[in-house]
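[agent] plan:
  1. take the single chain provided in the ticket
  2. run structure prediction with default settings
  3. attach structure tokens to the ticket
  4. add a short note for the reviewer (M.T.)
[agent] executing step 1
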Amino acid sequence: MIEVEVVFALPDKATVLSVEVPKGSTAEEAVLKSGIVEKCPEIDMKNLTLGIWNRTCKLDTELKAGDRVEIYRPLIADPKEARRKRAEKAKEEGRANKITGAKVKSGD
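[agent] step 2 finished; step 3 output follows
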């Protein structure tokens, strides 16, 4: 048996559970065995995205003793779209060149 942690975080709280699993267990098996799904109904088992120590992994990734399995929430916004909107706003506010998008130097 090996001991691992299973973690799920919301903006205002985090749930961290220690669980013992047989050697050779997968990340998904640790999530199921931990019982975290019952404690955190926000977890969508059909669209599960996991990581180990802040690196995404497949559900069938084999765990090692001391691993921290993290359950990731879906992104609210597409990062590329959010960056594009910020760049457009900077151009409109005069903080960026309307043609090149480069920062406008103060005093110019």
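[agent] step 4 note for reviewer: The longest helix spans residues 79-92.
[agent] ticket updated
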